From TrEMBL:
Location of this chain's protein in the cell: Nucleus
Region (Disordered): 54-125
Protein name stated in the entry: Cyclic AMP-dependent transcription factor ATF-3
GO CC term, one of those recorded: nucleus
Domain of life: Eukaryota
Length: 222
């Protein structure tokens, strides 16, 4: 009776078909495992290239299976299906208009901030001017206060004497009126005397020998 050697299983055949360079599982060595990772990457790269070519995209793919930065900038996903498409002129126009709107909005924002800063600066300068004026008024009031205190100190002895004499404001007023009447009477007397002297001199007769005697003096009021 002859012994039959069992052939390779279906799993072994599929594995050998996927990675032709590998031997059947029973004959794998350490060198086969070291070359396994680069082969898998190569298979992935080829699969991605085939998919991109079927989608009408460029087949240029980097070593890690991702597209370059320039391609990523010119492509975008459509309706969430994961398929990228090229940017159309309409998309470029929309992006351009959006950038222009952003520039205009940024310029308006900067101008508004500048105007606000200028307004605050003007208000600050105005308040500083008002503060300076108020300080000058305070200094002037201080000087006036010192003058009033000085004048009060000058009149203080007189006020103390009047207070000690027991005079009331009414008494001070009566004394003032009496003083005014006395001054008026004295002024009237002096005026009358001057008028009398003038009348006497105007009625003098010619002097004998140029001498004036008591007989020549005549007062009309007497």
């Amino acid at each position: 009776m002859m012994l039959q050697h069992p052939g390779p299983s279906l799993a072994d055949i599929s594995c050998s078909a996927m990675v032709p360079c590998l031997s059947p599982p029973g004959a794998l060595t350490l060198d086969d495992f070291t070359h396994f990772t680069p082969l898998v990457k190569e298979e992935l790269r080829l699969a991605i290239q085939s998919r991109r070519l079927s989608g009408g995209l460029s087949a240029d793919v980097s070593s890690d299976g991702t597209s370059s930065g320039s391609e990523r900038g010119s492509e975008r996903r459509s309706d969430g299906s994961g398929v990228r498409r090229e940017v159309t002129p309409q998309d470029h126009e929309r992006r351009k208009r959006r950038r222009e709107r952003n520039k205009v909005a940024a310029a308006k924002c900067r101008n508004k901030k500048k105007e606000k800063t200028e307004t605050l600066q003007q208000e600050s300068e105005k308040l500083e001017g008002v503060n300076s004026d108020l300080k000058a008024q305070i200094e002037e009031l201080k000087q006036q206060k010192q003058q009033l205190v000085y004048m009060l100190n000058l009149h203080r002895p007189t006020c103390i004497v009047r207070a000690q004499s027991g005079r009331t404001p009414e008494d001070e007023r009566d004394l003032f009126l009496q003083h005014v009447r006395e001054s008026a009477a004295q002024l009237h007397a002096v005026t009358s005397s001057s008028t009398c002297t003038s009348s006497a001199l105007s009625t003098l007769s010619p002097l004998d020998g140029g001498l004036l005697t008591l007989d020549h003096i005549f007062c009309a009021g007497l």
